[in-house]
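Q: I have 446 residues here and want to know how they pack in 3D. Can you give me a structure?
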Amino acid sequence: MLSQPNILKSESNNILFSYHRLDCIGGIETRLIDEFDYLQRQNFQVFFLTNKNRCDPQVCEIFSHCQFITIDIDNISYAPDFIKLVDSTINAIEIHGITLVSIHALDLFTLATVMAAQICKVPVIATVHGVIDIYRQPFYQILIQQFTNKSFSQLIFVSKTTQNLGAHIGSCQSYLIPNLINLDKYQFHNQDEQNGWLIVSRISHEKFPSIMAFLKAAETCNINKVSIAGGGNPEALQQRIIQANITITIEFLGERTDIATLIPQYEGIAGMARVALEGLACKKPVCIISPEGTLKGLVMPNNFMRLKDYNFTGKSLLTISENDFVNQLQNLRPKDIQTNYELLNQHLSTKKWLEYIPIYKKASFIDNPELEALYHKIAYYAPMLQTPFEKDEFFHQLFIETLRQFELKEVENSWWLHKQDNDLFKSYPSPFSPRKKEKFYKKLLK
């Protein structure tokens, strides 16, 4: 039930972001950098809570609008470290006068952070970034998405996919806030076609199909050269390229941190998600290659909004053939690229944060006494909880006891249903790993 509302006041807008790692710059980190900038402009003071053992000081230097709070945690699955994180977060909330907590993963780090927010009576906003975060082991789904979720004042989804699949996470107000891009960081100019196209992608086995799909299409289109920017295993990819008899020039650039200045040097860009936004920001033709390893074709004014709704992953678009891609390139007009840029500026510029941030000021504290009860049980019995939570039968007993104490029958029924089906601790297969899919389907057939 709602307690006395703790509505944010403009004179004390201190917000604590919580995320279990900060050791690289990916989509989540890029989003937060821009968000922090606009929060500061709106008189928020931003703090970032993370695990000291998974925090790279060089990455921290890129964040210029927040103060870092790092907690030395070895394994949060064990009660002593978990309680240490909860108590350290409580301490941070009290010292810095935190008035709002923002969490960015549905994991144990979030559970600890939300427990601290509950004890301090501070509102919580949850942002769901990806499908993989929703489809965790049923154990974590029950613990976070069905139990801890009662504390969420607001839910933010970054795409229609996560919004639809995560609709069960909470009954609170939800918002769709897509990934945005700072257009001021990007430049555009015409480039000599000799540089060819640029693929921006990690070079790993799950990415090979999508990279290969574009390379085959590039050869059909008589694109003479393709450069690939991304860390990983180029040797294994090179073997596939040789086996496919692809003869165009391919250059491996390795891991790059200068994508904003690299993109303008090429004729076109291939990739998905953040890469697509960056290519459009530089007024380049952008070809979407899906995570499933299929070719989705060029971003055009007539498919821009559909792509936007699904974070430019290519979902909702039909797969096209290599010849279809040839026709798309032949029919592409400068006007199409300019219209793409105008749509980008209208719908996905970081200036949109000025519209979204006022949402945060509507957050109010929602009491979740069962979560606080579980904290006190874990803290009291921490010396006895010597194995990870998912394997500790005594922790399971404490959790079930809490569900019964507060008459959370639906959550308890979900627990026993998965327990009966013997899948409470089974991970979902990755749709981008053929070997895992094959093993999963074989289990289903038994």
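Q: Anything worth noting?
A: Residues 183-348 form a domain with the Rossmann fold fold (CATH 3.40.50.2000). The chain has two domains: 10-180+360-420, 183-348.
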